[in-house]
Design a protein that fits this description.
The chain contains 4 helices and 5 strands. With 141 residues, it is of the alpha+beta class. It has a 5-stranded mixed β-sheet with strand order 1-5-4-3-2.
């Protein structure tokens, strides 16, 4: 597959993730993932089932969550990209009661593609920045 084909798969993945967050419909997301896809994200179990456990918590905590996909770079079978999401903390998240505060969080991801499916998803997100915005931990300075 070409790097543009791989980017299209990742775009469909991010659109599927957004659909899942907004509606709970998992089908568009599953269409882009290999059933045994591995996940490497802080605080998330490394399997598809782990992702299915974590994402609904964000849907509950930030019901107005909005995701923007930024730049995307592809090389051979990997696609790297950034996303930014915003939302208002209206429900419990990781034991933190709703604060009513609005947050903006950035994430960086790298997906590996094989035979038209994502087989590995590695990501990192600004957990500390989110916690500071929620007022759970103090900001620097």
């Amino acid at each position: 597959m070409s790097t543009e084909d791989n980017k299209d798969i990742v775009r469909r993945f991010t659109e599927g993730m957004i659909e899942y967050i907004r509606t709970g419909n998992l089908d568009p997301l599953l269409d882009t993932l290999h059933p045994d896809a591995a996940f490497d994200m802080p605080g998330m179990p490394p399997t598809l089932d782990g992702m299915k456990q974590v994402i609904p918590a964000f849907r509950t905590a930030f019901p107005d969550l909005h995701v923007t996909v930024g730049e995307m770079i592809a090389d051979e079978d990997k696609v790297a990209y950034r996303i930014t999401w915003t939302g208002t903390h209206k429900g419990e998240l990781m034991g933190i009661p709703a604060t009513g505060k609005r947050v903006t969080v950035t994430e960086t991801h790298i997906d590996q593609i094989a035979n038209g499916k994502i087989v590995q998803h590695v990501g990192d997100w600004d957990q500390m920045g989110m916690m500071q915005q929620l007022g759970v931990i103090p900001s620097m300075g």
